[in-house]
Amino acid sequence: MSRLMHVTSGPYAPPAARRELVAVSADGSRLHVEVHGEEGAPAVVLAHGWTCSTAFWAAQVRALAADHRVIAYDQRGHGRSPAGRTHSTTALADDLVAVLGAALAPGERAVVAGHSMGGMTIMAAAARPEFTAHAAAALLCSTGSSRLVEQATVIPGRAGRVRTRITGAVLGSRAPLGPVTPVARKVLKYATMGPGSAPNRVEACARIVHACPTGTRHAWSQVLAGLDLDADVARLTVPTAVIGGTADRLTPIGHARALAGALPDCAGLTELTGMGHMTPIEAPEAVTGVVRELTARHLHTTEKEKTP
Question: 11: which residues sit within 8 A by CB, 6+ positions away?
Fold first, then answer.
């Protein structure tokens, strides 16, 4: 389980949950789940990415909880969720449907948003009946379905075997990240954020990422290195919006464009100029705005259709 290290003041300090619960996945893994907002409000479920935690969504939780019920959970091995027995896209899908079942009432639907590995989680779960029963719409934010290491530009230079091999070694390193220092902030900003990212946003991201245990970071890096969810994108039939940053080095904007072109029901592609991989923190208003648009268009309509 990761250390709970995040900023404690400002817009990126995670607010206290109204209640907490534990979702139990198919293999017995226990997942920490937080619920914000009032019961009966339109539901939004947030799945964070690799090396992050529920704290990553602090800005969205603060903005949405005023008129939504926001459900955020820690992926296995991240935040307050203990490490699971296995690391795979199947486990990611198992975990998401477990959270949906634990946090939503039978038949209740939600907008499900995922950042990076959280988006991959949604793709992996797309064909699950539990997902289709609960998801009214989805958001894939700063993510991709395959060829992640090959297309990443964290390591400068021409694309090819050498860059791919070096990128894989860097992202999959077992070396501990250590404390958050000025040098660590510069490295993280270069690798994961746009060049114009404000210091408070870099600090928020650095604290979250550096809190992730080395073993968890390495184990999931191996899953991401071999990721192939292209076929699952075609199974994601709910209306799905896509967001990408044009300065993203981890999942370059080509991934977002490819997803938008492959989705059966794309609800729009938002390209955030100059933003990197950490878009929910780099451009919180834009990401929150897309979630609100999805709930207004799809979740509220779904609920009205249920009313006799």
Answer: 58, 59, 62, 284
Compute how many other C-beta atoms are within 10 angstroms of the C-beta atom of residue 31.
25
Q: State the pairing for strand pair 43-47/69-73.
A: parallel
Q: Hey, what's the torsion of the CAs at 89, 91, 97, 100, to 10 degrees?
A: -100
pTM: 0.94
Amino acid at 80: R
234: Cβ–Cβ under 8 A, 6 or more apart, which residues?
262, 264
Nearest Cα to 227, choosing from 175, 278, 151?
A: 151
| Torsion on CA atoms 86, 98, 210, 168, rounded to nearest 10 | 50
3-state helix, strand, coil in the chain (%, to 5): 45, 15, 40
pLDDT score of 278: 98
140 forms beta bridges with 114, 242
Distance CA 76, CA 114 (A): 15
| pLDDT tens digits, one per residue of 83-98 | 988 999 999 999 999 9
In the 8-state DSSP scheme, what is residue 146?
Answer: B
